[in-house]
Design a protein that fits this description.
The protein is of the alpha/beta class. 38% of the residues lie in helices and 26% in strands. 42% of the residues are buried.
Length: 234
């Protein structure tokens, strides 16, 4: 489905990613872990066309997406939940959700999709007419995920969805991510809660200093002594 081939990204003259190759297959849940500053957000933004690649290719079902703007990627079935949620605070929850259904296929089904999002997040349904800025952090994250789902993505990209959330909300968030994946949507999860990311994902890539230093089944990655020491506190 998605394949990165030898991707390089620079910020000015400084390299942020280099020689990054990875893949995500249909209906798979894959996570990317790594320390702060490793390039995780740069990676997910490069996939979505928000960071320009210097070298390499990003392929989607065999089509080269390298250099396409983000809205063209959304039309092809990719949707991003960015770090920090980035909702329009003065707009209602309902209005924020509808912003995700702008391309024709999604717009045609937005009533059904909205009903599905409200089933996933009952608290969102209760606050549809409320300004997004008035919601708690966890509720805003639910709206951000719901907005991405309104685009009917085949691949959902999540950048640090548990960041700053209460532990009980984190558990709920990961349960919903698994539900979305089990429904047939592929998921690429960039996450600082390493133990939970490894627990829910099938495969993991470890990113350090802009390079992928390890990859494999998540249970195998979780058993590696260096991963236990660096990320799991064991």
């Amino acid at each position: 489905m998605l394949e990165l081939q030898n991707v390089h990204v620079n910020y000015g003259a400084a390299p942020a990613l280099w020689e990054v190759s990875m893949s995500i297959f249909p209906k798979e849940l894959v996570c990317v872990i790594g320390p702060n500053g490793a390039g995780k957000t740069t990676l997910i933004n490069a996939i979505m066309g928000l960071n320009r690649t210097r070298l390499g290719s990003i392929l989607w079902d065999g089509e080269d997406l390298t250099g396409l703007p983000a809205h063209r990627l959304c039309e092809r079935g990719l949707a991003l939940v960015p770090e920090g949620r980035r909702l329009y605070g003065s707009m209602s929850v309902h209005e924020n959700l509808l912003l995700g259904a702008v391309h024709p296929k999604a717009r045609a089904k937005r009533a059904d999709t909205l009903e599905w999002v409200c089933e996933l997040f009952p608290v969102v349904k209760a606050k549809l007419n409320q300004a997004a800025a008035q919601l708690s952090g966890g509720q805003q994250q639910m709206v951000a995920i719901g907005r991405a789902l309104m685009a009917l993505p085949q691949l959902l990209l999540l950048d640090e969805p548990s960041l700053g959330l209460a532990p009980s909300i984190v558990i709920e968030m990961f349960n919903v991510i698994q539900t979305i994946n089990r429904g047939g949507t592929s998921v690429l999860l960039v996450e600082q809660n390493v133990s939970r990311a490894l627990a829910v994902s099938e495969r993991t890539y470890v990113l350090e200093n802009g390079r992928i230093v390890s990859s494999g089944p998540s249970d195998v990655i979780a058993s590696q002594p260096e991963i236990k020491k660096a990320y799991l506190g064991l």
